[in-house]
Amino acid sequence: MKIRLGYVAIALNVNKGSPNKTVTFKQFDKLPDNDTKLYKLKTLTKENLDTTKRILFYNKAHNIALYRLTSKLVPLATHPEVLEWDYIKEFEDRYINIGEFILENNLRASAHPDHFTLINTPDEKVFEASLRDLEYHTKIFEAMNLSEKDAKLVLHVGGTYGNKKKSTERFIHNFNNLDERYKNRIILENDDKSFTAKEVLAICQHLSIPMVLDIHHHWCNNNQENIKDLISDIFNTWNNEKHPPKIHVSSPKNDKNIRAHADYVDFNFLMDFIKASKKFDHDFDIMIEAKKKDLALFELMKNFKITPDVKVINDASIALN
Prior knowledge:
Elements: E1 2-8, H1 25-29, H2 34-61, E2 66-68, H3 92-104, E3 108-111, H4 124-143, E4 151-156, H5 164-176, H6 180-183, E5 186-189, H7 197-207, E6 211-214, H8 215-220, H9 231-236, E7 246-249, H10 267-278, E8 284-288, H11 293-305, E9 310-314, E10 317-320
Parallel strand pairs: 1-2, 1-8, 2-3, 3-4, 4-5, 5-6, 6-7, 7-8
Antiparallel strand pairs: 1-10, 9-10
């Protein structure tokens, strides 16, 4: 059973390793004219794309096979009051180059549109904004020539809006009516307040789409289900995919902020899940959502190196004996 580790967006070990350079709309709106505004957007986008490529080189050098691209590559891209410009054509070569690097090195890419991207919202304006966000993310991956099997979009089901059953039905209805370009990339994750792992699994099985299990969220939000009873069915939602199942891991920041993410991952918490998964003998990937990003990954690897029955394959992969 092989397990690969990855992290989200920012590489703390890389000089100027944040691809999230942006500008607030308030700051943007104060710029004197459209030429200046466009120059600002282009400059930040170029920097973010170039930083992303540097991070991917770093990841390859350290055998980090999975990486979540930032949703902020193009600042203010989905803001309705920002001037329109072709952020794809302008940097076409850079997108293609990034995508080629990902494919040539068998890296696993994903993105996670923010929590305002809500498929099951009853608010038409919020739904329209969500579609704009899905279009933005999809265009980025298409510009990189990453197919729906190569690069996924992680979403939550959304809010319950006072009636979980109707909210679930609305999600399924709205999902089924989405552009195929979006539907084929979307994978669902359980959240820490509204939809449990078991509930999300049922939706994924109904729609025949993969599920990402977040074990921290499950710890925060469950109906006393034992995660061991769900692992096999969750992993099976990935049967027709290019990449193995993926889980998310983080740890509570403290006793008062149990939903907030800590700097590092509680090693014993993660190992409990890995041990529970061992009997299924199924390869899977782990996306680390700790605040310390790649540093948290390497800290976990230090612990794996001294753990019985764990074989370290490289800087970011292990196998269980």
